[in-house]
Design a protein that fits this description.
heterotrimer, A mainly alpha (305), B alpha/beta (427), C mainly alpha (278), B: 427 residues, 5-stranded parallel sheet, C: mainly alpha, ABC transporter involved in vitamin B12 uptake, BtuC, 3% strand
Chain lengths: 305, 427, 278
Amino acid sequence: MWWIIALAVLAIIPFVSPPSLVYLLGLTFIFVVFVVSWDLIAGYAGQINLGHTVFIGIGAYTTALLQTGKIGLPIWATILIGGLTATAFGFLIGAICLRLRGYYLALVTAILPLICIQILNVYSEIFGGYEGIPLGLDKALAKDPIAEYYIALAFMLACIVAITLLIRSPLGIKLKAIREDEELAEAIGIDVVRYKLIAFCLSAFFAGLAGGVMAHYRITVGPDLFDVPLMLTIILAAVIGGLGTIYGPIIGAFTIYLAKTYVFARIVQMLSLNVSDEIFLYILLIVVILKCPEGIFPKLRRLIA
Amino acid sequence: MRLLPVLLILAIAPVNAGVIKIGVIGPMETKYGTAMVNAVKLAAEEINRKGGILGNKIEVVVADTKLDANTATSEFRRLAVDEGCKVIIGGFSSGVALAMMNVMAETKVLWLGDASSPRLTDLVSKDYDHYKYYFRVLTMNASTFPLDMIDMLDFLRSEGMKIKRVAIIRDNALWTEDVMKKFRPLLEKHGYEIVMDEKVGRGQSDFSSFLLKAKERADVIVPILAHVSGVPLIKQWADMGIGIPIAGHDLAAIDPDYWNATDGKCLGEIYIADGGAVPSPINDKMKHFLEAYKAKYGHLPEAFSAYGCYDAVYLYKKAVEMAAKAGKDPFDPDVLVKYLEKFNRSHPFEGVRGKIAFTKNHDLVWGDGFIRNWVCQWQDGRQVVVYPKYMATGKLMIPHQKKKTPGFELVTALAGLLLATAVRRKS
Amino acid sequence: MLEILIYGIIIGSIWTLVSSGFSLVFGVARILNFAHGTFFVLCAYIAILLFPYLGYLSVIPAVIFTGLFGWIVYRFLVSPVRDYEVMVILITLALALLVEEILLAVFKDVSKSFPSPVSGVVFVAGVPVPMNRLLILGVAIAVTICLEYFMSRTKMGKFITATSQDPEASMLVGIDVERVYSVTMVVSAMLAGIAGILYAQIYSVNPATSLRVLIYAFAIVILGGLGSVRGSIVASYIIGFIQVAISMLFDPRWAEIAALLTIIAVLIVRPKGLFGVE
């Protein structure tokens, strides 16, 4: 029931709200996929990957480079290639890093995005350095911003449905078993490393796709897609919503992204503070970690029940 | 006589009375951004005091690019769509500006911009219908920087400096790639030799390896820096006693506070003032601008961008008034583009930096009399224009090679001894 | 070659101060402090800010304040979530970015340097070595000796060593472990702060420096072995040489990638580092 109302509201919004909110909502839909795909590995498989932005960035840069090159492929083909490239990297990184635990996994994955950003800078002739690569107007998802909005909405829904199905499948149940107790899972015959790796690749695939869609939605790619602030925003959204629940990260992603880009930005402008709106985000993250590390929405639900 | 403009205002005012919003977009964490805002606000205040543009008061709306294409495009969109700005002034960083060009084309808003890559104005000529709203008012096309820099090197040579081998230190950014494309063959043609070409990223503060390399191999260090601050480069150049001169395009050096920021270590640095921006009263308009700026903010313009932004507001006002006088809708961007294009080589606009005229693809006309980059030098706390001759406010000071100071090797030996004992203690 | 040696030793000395504190905190309290670079930058900024009023004495309040800030970070942010490794990483990372944004808002994106008390250049076999870099060598050695003295001769130092070896046993013999952790954090912050001032004296700092410094600190402590102070001192010089050598022979932009790859390579091949401790 709630889903239907929410969908109806999202379907009507372009006709009743200012254009910039429509644009931001489109970005938010893609951001939701970032968060849900991270939750797949962090919330369901229990592997804290702090380098999720690597997959987003690889997806985005792959399609951007293919489109600015002389290959006349349609946009969606290169987005898919971006997703597959991200999966390949996910497999490589996963195969090496998933043996590491706790600190070490977090540490290595936290460093990967920094390496990517440095490589973008060193080979700035190819990747455009810190200025990024602008795509032409003709590479946009659609000519019309409202059409772009609906495409992003459809993309988000498709990804959510796919990930929900995955989680409810036998694969998802095995992943949950691994998260709860790795040794027990091994004892009952689950190939822990293999399933972790599958989860890692799936997570990378969806992130890569979303990165590619993002590139064509805003017709520009830049190192911000790899960078630590985006990673922290993803984590904050997932943590606020509650890890390991599908609805939680979705609500969290909407809340955080709109708060960051719409509410915080407007507060900053209204008070004419000369600060970045990200300041609020970091304060919020610190408060959330200190006060309710298990998530705000699960807590609220428990309070109501 | 004074009645005429009033009548004109009355004729149009009923339709458009109220407020004209002017957007300023730039990297607000840097001096370049704050200078843009200050200059536009100053011009707006002056114009409002005299009745505004066709009776409309100017309101300034500020947006921050954070030097990041994503933020820049969404902020540009906010100015154009949500705020309904009639014109957007500013920019900075060619890569970021290139991303904003697409939003401009989509939202059809006039942009009097910055950023020097030729690719921006190439778009104007390639796809005029979409990109015609961009006019590069703040700075020159990067393809003209090499002309200025080669002039500068030739001038230094003619003053008796022995220059042949050139060491380049430049931003790792789009615009320097475009500069180098033209600068490289030009240097060869004029008999120079590039012995080092290094790129530095934002936030780089250790220049010692470049400086050592340059000292060994080159006669002159040519920085081509806008995004990276030149302050640490100059500090280390002086501290390390590098001895060979620095002469190039260092945006930070235009700031009047540069002398204090470098503790006076910039003594002798030669640089070209981007887009004719130098706090030196070269004409009456410039004189007025510098005085008004100082009166309002307590200091001279802190960056090159102030000059162009101040010009841009007046340029916009003039174009709007011309359109209104001709009976066209002065707030239709397509109409305004036509009127801005009327400022060409034979009918230039008089700005603070000199004559503003546009080429066919909306670049500033380069050349003597028009806007070009002056060669300046820091001498005892003052910025002195040394070239071209008709602009010069002083003579070039030729830096002399520092003498080596031996005898200090004793100190090094002592330090080494200390280190050795410390290491032994630890193990 | 000689250039690399001299400049490597100097930059290595700065890294020594940064990494020994970082390593100490991990070794004693098992805290992976992503805000370590923040101490470095913050201290430099305070010293620069106070310089017009206090002259070179501004170093003292700056270092003291940084120590205090270290205590605040431990007491109010890290201590409550100390049992969750990943939460410690997240909260210190968020803090680092928060401070970076605040510094950016206050000081703008401008590189600032601390005026050096000495000037002049020394030529060592033709290599110019500025006096202000030699000064760093002296200060770094003096501070390291002080640290060594503190750790081996004072009661608190012995408590710290004991806690790092076995926190539970230390608690049993009546050591106030929480207090030991706070002191360690303060010492670590002050060391990073001193390094920050030294760095700002020859180069310059800007708000983004903190993440850059953090990367090098990571590379060093992981190479030297997480938690081993001596290992990190040796690794500091190794990384210093690598950094300078790459800058001189190839391109400084590769120096950071080299540091980052060192981290990953060591973690994967030999997770305990070169001088691994448990």
